[in-house]
Amino acid sequence: MSEICKNCSAEILLNFCGNCGQKKAKRIDRTYIKDEIQYTVFHMNKGFLYSVKKILRAPGKTAREFLEGNRVNHYKPILLVFVVAGISAFLTNTLIHPDAIITQYFESHNVKTAFDMKSYNSFVYKYQAILMLASVPFMAFFTWLAFKKWGYNYCENVVITAYSLIYLQVLSILIVVPVQYFLKDNPELFMPISSGITFLLMICCFIWFYIDFYNNKSAGDVILRLFLLMAILVVLYIFLIIIGIVGVIAYSLLTGADLKTIFPAP
User: Residue 129 has what pLDDT?
Assistant: First the structure.
């Protein structure tokens, strides 16, 4: 029996509207709620866990397959960045409280900074998922520059970058979070070991991801372009530092503020 689509007013002859794809409307009852719960659990199991397992086994290959059109079983990569980063932030803030550890470390070494480190770290860890998601388009721009001649446009690099960050975050949950948990009562070990493992993991993660993604290229060519990417980021970082210093000096000259109050001596 046909009916009129509640979304676009086209006639529905089968179970779904041929114009907009909406399913035939039915009254919300126990059966509807049961079906929704089953679909949600099934989708989470088949989409989220399926994608995570695929990424852990072959991160670059998984990203490449998604770009080539194999998408039906995969969780959306942009959303997955947010979900995985959110899980990481939840575990970190619930089990470890790194903002308090870092603050304790700075206070024990009598290190004075121009910023409130506790507030800064609290902000970073609290909004880690949002910050990670916001970094995707910027990182994608630089990966697009580094690998521009290898055929993927900027929008495709957004997806590639998303997968690389998912891979990094999942490995961080499996490796870094347990290490931080066991070292949380010892700031002297927590700071260098946690930072060292994070940095090493980041380097290895991105190298392996892009070698696996561009498996038709030599590993040497991939690593060379990653070093090019690193050089671009270092230059940008130095440029931003210079702008920041110039801005602070300009602010002090315009307001008459003492630079010693902005950059206190250690």
Answer: 66
